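User: For my dataset I need records formatted as: sequence, then structure tokens, nothing else. Please produce one.
Assistant:
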Amino acid sequence: MIMIKKLIAAFSSIAMVASMFMPLGASALTFNPGTLIKGQSYSAVYYFAEDGKRYVFPNEKTYFTWYENFDDIMVIDDRTLGIIPIGGNVTYRPGKKMVKITTDPTVYAIDVSGVLRAIGSEELAETLYNINWNQQIDDLPDAFFINYKMGSPIATAAEFKPADVQNAVSNISQNIGFTSAQAAISIGDTMTGFVPSSITIKKGATVTWTNQDGKPHTVKGDGFQSGTLEYKDSYERTFSQVGSYQFYDTFNEAMVGNISVIN
């Protein structure tokens, strides 16, 4: 993924600081959906979602519609990052900015779930985004528009209120359509283990384990056990009681993990 220079510089600084410490590998890999992650050697930053996949920020403009700084990015080793499948690209936060592609003068507002809605006039744009509306438009490469869906044009200001749309989703998971009723864990090799190895979920949530390794694995815990999971096979379990649930791979008992279930 090609990142713009400012983002590369900022993320490179993060990687430099992180390299002074032991990177987070399988032995200490605890994070939940909503965590920002990146590898040691690459500038790309990802959002870890409830489906167990990582969603990339295609550029810094997209990133800063959701976050104010880079303070909460977790740096993990490249091998472990590679176990987590890529889910797609993060889109702009709804209502935050307007966008257009470089080859088309049409200006779009962004609705929930990455829906683009054309703004038909300068007067309407000024009503929606105030007198400096033309300073709130980002030009995006044509290739980025495949991440969005086309919606109906905005005919009147009553149809689209930027502040309300922006507040309709508080995080990227909501914008994609995920809920706290799901979580996912990738199964790697004996070096990476379960990724993440420890998560916290709400009571009633379903956890899905998927084997991302070329060798067979299993998931076994107190009261639950999968069969043999070949590459890309999945196993799921719903946790209905509050508590702490340890699990391991019967083929590689050093591969262990834990699920904390809370109200």
